[in-house]
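Structure tokens
________________
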Amino acid sequence: MIKFYGSRESLIFKLKKLFHTMEIIDYYKIDNLSASISLIDDSKLSLYIRQIQEAPRSMSVRNPFNTVYSIETIINDEGLSEVFLHTLKRSFLSYSEFELEAIVNDMPLLNKYANKYKGAFNDVALIWRDHFVEDSLGLLQNFVNMGLDPSLTLVFDKGDKTLHRKEVWETFEEIGFGVHKLDNAMFNQKSKSSETETLEVKELLDNFINQANRKGKKIIIMDDGAFITNFFSNNTSKLHGIIELTEMGLRRITNSNINVQCPIINAAKSDLKRHITYPEIGAACTFKILQLLGSEKIIGRRILILGYGDAGKNICKNFKGLGVNVSVVDPDYFKLILAAEDGFNTYDNVTEAIFKEQPFLVVGASGYPSITEDDISLLPNNSFITTVATADLTVLKNKSFQKIKKITVPKYGTQYITDKKTFTLLGNGRSINLFEGESIPTKGIDLFKSSILLSAILLIEQKQKLEFGLNKAVLNQWLEENEVFKEYYNLYYKKDIVENIKGNNYSAMEVIK
């Protein structure tokens, strides 16, 4: 069944626009809530449309779509072209104008700064790589509202199995972006196909840079993991600037031979992300793990968290609050001290921790390969493994694990079955909060997305004040100057009593009484 989330008028408009552009259609007629269609191969079919009761497709539950329509296809000829059905289904994957408006409205702080700096993206060409989730759609739609030319925008999907990745992809294409996939796995594989993909991406980027330069655009990269940045290792002088969103990306830049001849804004280790966004990430990871554990009891049981960084620390605290016995492994002794003083069992190596604790769940949160085959062999039978960062479970890509009997459990993960034991990978070995989910609530990520927008404004308007290479603390000051924390606080935490007093001409003492 094909569904449309929006008004009857917008549905009819979408159908007419689609039919006009489909070369395989010879004739069509739309009458009220039905359509008769003839194709050039002499096939004929009818569409019957009816209004149904349906939950929102997006996360915007406060913006329910009271008008949801189902489109039923009745085939009148056995020779019906499959091309039509495929095109019809795909075209309705993209979000309707009502859904897109609801997603954008769920990011009020981002909207505020987009309006404040309207027109700032008029001279910008953008290369963006991140997760295909609804809040990314809200961010980029706001960039377009600020003047970004979709035809001078490349967006790359990281390849995570997010819930609405197909819908976001189709919506990006409908907006007019160049949409492509650049999976982390492409860099980990050493095969002819990955080499071919790398060359194709390089050619795509080179052509884009040349086109943007010819039009005099300021080229900005927004990157998750420094994968796009890596393609410009020898020619960063062509870029106006780079915004790196992840700690792993900062590590790659620091440890690489990239000849940096443009500013790089550190959005990964800003105070905002560390102290406000990471608790949201930790909560999203915890909720998703609990969901995937299904019938498992957790209170009082032992789990092991690998890494006590910004993400791991918050996950530890969340599970502890649920009554779970949490142990931490980290090679950094300063972090171990912090973990111990926060009340957690601590170890400086994984093997000892697993041997002594026998956890039923291990969560990777270090950002580097943190567990070995021998470690996994020490786990108790019917245990679970999952991760916050892709790198932690690199071991599962070893040949020995490829030979083990595996059973895919849709929507949950993969069971590995050996002669001695069974263990289950929750998710797909990548960021668990993004597995078949939208991760952080849109309003929860609104503050961080606003910081990304303001990072771009910093590059666009004040590049002369920035240094080539990594600018570590400059974003913190810029966010303070734009009063982003004050705005966020007023939005969610400030009581509205003051406004009520002003509006009703009450005195403070009268309200207290």
About this structure: The radius of gyration is 25 Å. The mean pLDDT is 89. The longest strand covers residues 44-52. The chain is about 40% helix and 20% strand.
